[in-house]
């Protein structure tokens, strides 16, 4: 009888443990399952534990738990070209039938001939013209619907999947983990604010109002008695480098306690975050994984790049600061994309 | 026995009802206790019921339940002068010992002599100079601490209470009621964004990142190896009139389904809100209560004013649109301020 009771207890306990495990409520559950164990994963977990421990020396009120994330190269793939540039090039092709003159005009001529070297040769002037025709001259509603349609159909040239499926699973883990611990997560990106907003909620769980980015000027006007906001071909704000702390101050109005980036454009955001009082976490994604994604630096001898460059000076600064951490995609991430 | 059981049941039911009433969980609880019954209170309650009824024709997903509120004259008192102007004048007085030259220079001379007509006579040029010396030339951190200190000590000349106690209780009711129904509440004000942010969470339950306002340009720089954001004497954005829908689009990135204002500066915000699909609520606070607060228009024959003017054309537009409602402070509000 005693033996049977013991056996029964064991079975009940086992079933109960299995239920806990499967329902995901176990205290031992891994909050960052796509991360390999190591100092970087540990730094995230220890930071979250410290700032959420009520009565502890590092406790931070929920309202001040602000975390900011760069987008391109930090939350999703930015090679071989920025997703927004891929969108712009596709738009030029889609608009070409209405612009027969583009056959003879750069940078359009090169885009239509799929001559990326020619596009690059058109330089900043060419890029400005591409952005003007693809990003301005329409209402905000029209632009949003064009972007939404494009995300639904366009595919990344190497991975042959929608761009929205090329978010990094380990960073989605971090976003979810932070939010589960009372953080408010924001994107602070050099990319266009209205290009990102149509997809950030679905892809990252970040609503439009928590997206900070670069923007062009807009104009409110009445068209046939209905108010519209028109997009103008004039720069309003560049949310890159020193623009990132300025954008954070302007849009969020609070200093983040954690910031994540991947390039020289994120340096000032991380410096601004780190200069606040109390415990802080600054992390940089380093792309050293040509096999699963891409490898570029030029820091630490990785190939140089014009897209999302991580200069050696940034690596040196990160190594010199105790609460800055460089994430090795190759070593730290068990999995890169959601569908692997 | 039957009679006793009946009596007991009545007592139990009565006690239970009293408990419900006192604990505030009764379905009959008034969600807007500071409002008098009438069409305006009814419009708010019916709107909220409609957009939150799952499966109903007017249902709106929680993520799209965005409500925007003007601040001066809509959420708190703006007479006899805007609170931010009262702050600026007090700052000039506080800074005067370091500026002996102000004794002979307008608009400072008039401010120090408490000559408000002289200040007004200095016009836009004078106002720009006042704002430059009181709002620029310091870091964002210094400005925040100056504003916080001022709010802790300054008092309204008529009501002899801190400005932060001059929020309108009926609007606090609306903010709480909307948030309890899954709305995200934003301030969209012509006032300075960094002047409002230090007090909005405490006064309205609206965190800094949900405050949109006018701003000056800022500059990120290193001072003694520490990053600071300096406030420059250059306008960045004026969040008034057509600037309100532009600011909403830029900061929030979603069109509100409800908007609240009180002056000609809110017209475009309400038009933009109302032009979206589905059920919408647009409301304007009309100050017709000189006894409990102030009376000004010039609409409907109220005294004309330079501060928060409600023109007749706005009244006509509101009357012509079915889902615009003009709130009479005198008739609709049972109570004006929290401590009455
Ligand atoms: Ca980046
Ligand atoms: Ca107002």
From TrEMBL, chains A, B:
Source superkingdom: Bacteria
Keywords: Hydrolase, Signal
InterPro entries: HAD-like_sf, HAD_sf
Pfam families found in the cross-reference section: HAD
Signal peptide: 1-27
Gene Ontology terms, MF aspect: hydrolase activity
Name of protein: Haloacid dehalogenase-like hydrolase
Organism: Flavimaribacter sediminis
């Amino acid at each position: 009888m005693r033996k049977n009771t013991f056996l029964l207890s064991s079975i009940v306990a086992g079933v109960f443990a299995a239920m806990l495990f499967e329902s995901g409520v176990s205290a031992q559950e891994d909050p960052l399952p796509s991360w390999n164990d190591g100092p970087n994963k540990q730094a995230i977990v220890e930071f979250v534990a410290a700032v959420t421990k009520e009565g502890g020396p590092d406790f931070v009120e929920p309202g001040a738990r602000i975390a900011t994330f760069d987008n391109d190269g930090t939350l999703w793939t930015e090679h071989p070209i920025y997703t927004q540039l891929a969108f712009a090039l596709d738009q030029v092709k889609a608009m070409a039938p209405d612009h027969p003159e583009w056959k003879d005009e750069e940078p359009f001529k090169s885009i239509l001939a799929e001559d990326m070297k020619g596009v690059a040769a058109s330089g900043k002037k060419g890029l400005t013209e591409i952005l003007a025709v693809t990003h301005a001259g329409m209402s905000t509603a029209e632009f949003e619907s064009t972007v939404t349609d494009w995300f639904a159909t366009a595919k990344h040239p190497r991975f042959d999947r929608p761009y929205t499926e090329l978010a990094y699973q380990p960073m989605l883990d971090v976003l979810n983990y932070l939010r589960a611990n009372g953080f408010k997560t924001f994107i602070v990106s050099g990319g266009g604010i209205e290009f990102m907003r149509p997809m950030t909620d679905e892809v990252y769980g970040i609503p439009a109002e928590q997206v900070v980015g670069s923007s062009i000027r807009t104009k409110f006007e009445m068209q046939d008695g209905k108010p519209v906001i028109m997009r103008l071909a004039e720069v309003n704000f560049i949310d890159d480098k020193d623009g990132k702390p300025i954008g954070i101050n302007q849009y969020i109005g609070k200093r983040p306690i954690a910031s994540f980036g991947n390039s020289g454009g994120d340096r000032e955001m991380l410096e601004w975050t780190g200069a606040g009082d109390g415990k802080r976490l600054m992390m940089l994604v380093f792309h050293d994984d040509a096999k699963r994604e891409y490898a570029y630096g030029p820091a630490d001898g990785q190939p140089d790049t014009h897209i999302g460059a991580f200069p050696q000076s940034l690596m040196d600064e990160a190594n010199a600061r105790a609460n800055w951490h460089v994430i090795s995609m190759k070593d730290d991430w068990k999995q890169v994309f959601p569908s692997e």
